[in-house]
Amino acid sequence: MPPKRKRVGAHPAPPQPDAPRRSMRTLKHQAAVNEARHSSPMDIDNTDGAILGKRETISEKTEDLQEAMRELSEMELQLQTAARRQRLAVEASDLHVEHDPSDIDLKPKPYTPARDSAFAQNFTTKPRPRDQTILDRSNVSHAKDAVVDSPEDDDAFGTGACRPPPVNSDILPLPWEGRLGYACLNTYLRNANPPVFSSRTCRISSIIEHRYPLQDPSQPEHPIKNRANKSKEPDVARGQAYLQELGLANAKDIVKMLRWNDKYNIKFMRLSSEMFPFASHEEHGYKLEPFASEVLSEAGKVAAKLGHRLTTHPGQYTQIASPRKSVVTAAIRDLEYHDEMLSLLKLPDQIDRDAVMILHMGGTYGDKAATLDRFRENYSKLSDSIKRRLVLENDDVSWSVHDLLPICEELNIPLVLDFHHHNIIFHPSMREGTHDIIELFDRIKKTWTRKGITQKMHYSEPTASAITPRERRKHSARVKTLPPCARDMDLMIEAKDKDQAVLELMRTYRLPGWDKFSDIIPYEREDEPRKAVRKKGAKRGKKKTTAETNGEEECEGYEIEIPEKINFLQWFKSLPGATFSDAIKIVDLRDRNAGRGIIALQDIEPETTLFTIPRKGIINTETSELPKKLPDVFDLNKVSDEDEDEETVPPMDSWSSLILVMIYEYLQGTKSSWKSYFDVLPSSFETPMFWPEEDLDQLQSSHMRSKVGKADAEDMFRGRLLPVIRNNSELFSASKSMSDDQLIEIAHRMGSTIMAYAFDLEKDDEAEEDEADGWVEDRDGKSLMGMVPMADILNADAEFNAHVNHEDESLTVTSLRPIKAGEEILNYYGPHPNSELLRRYGYVTDKHSRYDVVEIPWNVVESVMTTHFGISGDILEKLRCQLEEEEEFEDTFVLERETGDINPDGTFSVPARFDSIPEDLQEQLKTFLKGVKKGQPEAIPDKRKRDELQQAVQAKTLETLASRYPTSISEDELLLGKKDLPSRHRMAISVRLGEKKLLQEAIQMLSSDGDVKMTVDTETAPSKRAKRSG
User: Fold this and answer.
1) What mean pLDDT comes out for the span 657-675?
2) What CA–CA distance (Å, rounded) separates 247 from 286?
3) Are residues 558 and 594 in contact, defined by beta-carbon separation less than 8 angstroms?
4) Count of helices and strands (H, E) across the chain
5) CB 250 within 8 A of CB 272
């Protein structure tokens, strides 16, 4: 191979291109150049043309060179601009750098041709063509010259970098009571399969094409195999039907988005203006009624049921203050379309009033006063329905809050405050930021209250690198804080990440419902740190071992690790003495309505230690620093003195003590040793304490209804906990900025957390001494209670496979029987009926129905005796007073089944069956009937009559209790068969159904002759339980 040599002479000219190059010349002129370039040199008649072609070739090279140099110069300018921006930002900051005058100026100079240069004229006179944005809205053609004014300062970078820093309010609307919303698109559902969204659209050419029938009408449309047959006659109605199908598909997805929103506690959404494509178009437009009436009405029913607010925001070209009549006409058509769409939702009165249409004023057209006059004139021509819905929003180009508030007050139009727009365009009397605008809050709010509409605001933030007004108009992907609005505000988050931004904000401030979406993977942005870890799945046919994955092997349905869980697990493993087996894994089981849980990654043998919790990692009065700082408050042995003042705080029991400790640690935030633990604890609960009356009514006559006492708990919080917090504000420093109601809400949350998750920290031997069945409950408030991280993640059922062992230095969780891979690890909460399970923990299970009970109030028994058996009420009252004096009277009895003991491996030993009427009820009833025999002998002449009467009273009492339930067993079973039954209603029906079935079993037993022997047949025989003969 010959060696390469450097060329000495001039380089040969590059080959001439056959195709025209991209330049400023027209194609027609280029064609002439090509024609001249390819002319034959032997053609004498075209000699002049050939010479001209050569000149044009030289001119083309010159222009190409100019273009290249111009691009290089622009690149230099961009680099200088970026450097200047950073320099101005530094100069505007508090940093000051002294420059040495001897420094050499190395700043590059942009290329500019000399005035006498051959390139100078072209360089300065030929502008670079700008890209044209393609807009697909139907009224764009009427509004091209009506775009809002967007003047940019020549020194935009200097103005932006050197502007005064924003002055923001330090007010946070916490605890949050309002609704957060997002606009139009749900990022999760849009990327689902199939996608769910409400902005399917098309081009006008597609409408025209769909007027033709398909080549094969019996087959579905295909872009190649089955296209429109344009040889046939077009039908306008067919093209219209195509549009309407798109609109119906969009509208049907509203329900899916609403239900998704409600699942994650999002109650506010803006509907897409593109819901029905081209509905307001001058030529292709159409009315939504009747074809869309049903689907929109169904969406409205779901929104009303879920308490969801829906709004719309017509686009930037919908401007009724434009000087062009065609623009105004198109704008009114667009408003009529939006109004019809909202009206067909058929929402209830208040939700319908809240379904507003947000509009911008638009451009100023050189004269704000004249623009406002046109707005007044055209607004007066709008229909009453549109006027009821129309609201104005300040923009980020021309119209500030100060500009719009007077016209809103004049015409009775609500004003939407957009904080982001206000920080770009604001009155000179105000400073940028959220602080100064607060002084207008009252005036803005009155524009809403006058019309009875719930106020809403818009919030977003600029991108981090934005300096100029044009850059700052762009919305950031997420928002980092909440504006200083009212705590019950409807706040639309206008961020690029839509629902993602709302969820992130809820995570940041632990807003109500934030714990409901911890199983959702945050959308990963290239410009932000990764927010979740997605594990690579094992290939088919090859299963990784536990050693290979270090306990992170994927089980079907559990392939995603959630950031909160990762942080919590890492924190737990860091506790001295804590262990966590590689054979188990924390997962989210919310699709089963079971919350978080722990599953087995591999087969587990009995007596295997699954994890260990050191006692020092438990939250209680022995591990928290608070009792050491307030020793007098936490003296659990303190006895209340009857002579103390009424204002003296009552002594603390273990229940209130743990709530106070939890409040203290929670308010400590990152200073608390248990911060990672608090991050995974729920902020909302499904326990009946938090149910509205309509949900509680589903319990019907269940005795549980009387045990839901939020008011009693609140009295305790205000009487015991609140004084301690207020008197020790230096320890509860975060409470200084909170109201009493806010602290009470935190106390309710901590109390519900303790009820659902706390353990009684008794050693096993002490437990056996206290109660024979080994089940310990803190009935008197004297047991040491504590929050046990990791152990409380275990779900529980009546049959279980794991057990918590209380040891001196730790608590260990061990398996009781073989557990298969993929099986959930289940703990045992005790032999609770479903009513108690629901009251304490907020759920019910089929297996716990064996423990269902019915409470029998004595007053019902007395009522039955007086009403149905003619026994004197005075005699019964006298007998009751005697027993009360002797402290032998019971006012309530518990009807329950015989369930047997649980096997050592956590399984049932025998089937549950109803055995007998409660012995204490029989004994008390017998005592009363003996007294009746003495005081009213004609009612009970002999012992046989007394036994018959006792049996009859018991049966009638049970029938009376059963008759108090409005629905029957069969009706309840039909209700439970409905798939769309709300979860709270389903749990309540399960509770009342279990009680009805128990009453039915007891009534059937009493009505069976010889089926059961009375357990108190003789006055002297010992009370014993008899077996059923069958």
Assistant:
1) 90
2) 11
3) no
4) 35, 22
5) yes
For the residues 1023-1028, what does the mean pLDDT come to? Answer: 32
Nearest to 613 by CA among 828, 809, 814: 809
Which residues pair with residue 45 across a beta bridge?
A: none
DSSP readout, 578-644?
-EE-TTEEEEE-GGGT--EEEEESS-B-TT-EEEEEEGGGSBSTTTSSHHHH-TTTT-TT----TTS
**CA 696-697-703 angle, 5° bins:** 75
DSSP string, 864-880: HHHHHH---HHHHHHHH
**CB burial readout 356-382, b (16+ within 10 A) else e:** bbbbbbbbbbeeeeebbebbeebbeeb
Q: How many CB atoms lie within 10 A of CB 780?
A: 9
Residue 10 DSSP class:
P
Strands 560-561 and 533-534: antiparallel
pLDDT of residue 93: 53
User: CA nearest 476: which of 466, 489, 485?
Assistant: 466
Rounded CA-CA distance 208/210 in Å is 5
| Contact present, 879 and 933 (Cβ < 8 Å) | no
- DSSP structural state of residue 146: G
Torsion angle of C-alpha atoms 869, 874, 876, 877, degrees rounded to 10: 150
Residues 6+ apart with CB under 8 A from 941: none
Task: List all residues 6 or more positions away from 717 whose beta carbon is below 8 Å from its beta carbon.
Answer: 659, 744, 747, 748, 751
Residue 431 neighbours by CB distance under 10 Å: 15
Taking residue 386's Cβ as centre, other Cβ atoms within 10 Å add up to 19
Amino acid at 32: A
Residues 746-784 have pLDDT tens digits of 998 898 898 888 888 764 444 333 333 333 333 344 567
* Block residue for tokens 């705590």: 487
Ramachandran assignment for 807, one of left (phi > 0), alpha (psi -120 to 50 degrees), beta (any other): beta
Q: What pLDDT was estimated at residue 316?
A: 85
Question: Which ranges of 496-562 does DSSP label H, i.e. alpha helix?
Answer: 499-509, 546-549
How many CB atoms within 10 Å of residue 435?
16
Count other Cβ atoms within 10 Å, centred on residue 969: 15
CB contact at 8 A, 989 and 973 = no
According to DSSP, the residues that pair with 226 across neighbouring strands are: 222
Least-confidence region, from 15-19, 178-182, 331-335, 347-351: 15-19
Tokens representing 774 are 């080994």
CB neighbours of 176 closer than 8 A, spacing ≥ 6?
A: 482, 487, 509, 511, 512
The residues pairing with 855 across neighbouring beta strands, listed in sequence order, are 894
- Helix, strand, or coil (residue 415): strand
> What's the pLDDT at 946?
85
Predicted confidence at residue 776, as pLDDT, reads: 33
CA atoms within 13 A on the CB side of 510: 16
| Residue 596, phi then psi, degrees to nearest 5 | -75, 160
3-state SS assignment for residue 844: coil
Contact partners, residue 288, CB within 8 Å, separation at least 6: 247, 276, 279, 296, 337, 340, 341, 344
Contact 63, 22 (CB under 8 A): no
DSSP tag of 8: -
Q: Distance (Å, rounded) from C-alpha 422 to C-alpha 485? A: 14
Report the pLDDT value the prediction gives residue 705, as an integer from 0 to 100: 84
User: Per the structure block, which two tokens stand in for 89?
Assistant: 């930002």
Q: Where are the beta strands (DSSP E) in 902-967?
A: none
Torsion of Cα atoms, 295 then 296 then 298 then 304, to 10°: 170
SS3 of 734-761: HHHHCCHHHHHHHHHHHHHHHHHHCEEC
Question: Is the separation of the CB atoms in 361 and 404 below 8 Å?
Answer: yes
Run of H or E residues at 73: helix 47-92
- pTM equals 0.48
Q: Which residues pair with 579 in a beta bridge?
A: 612
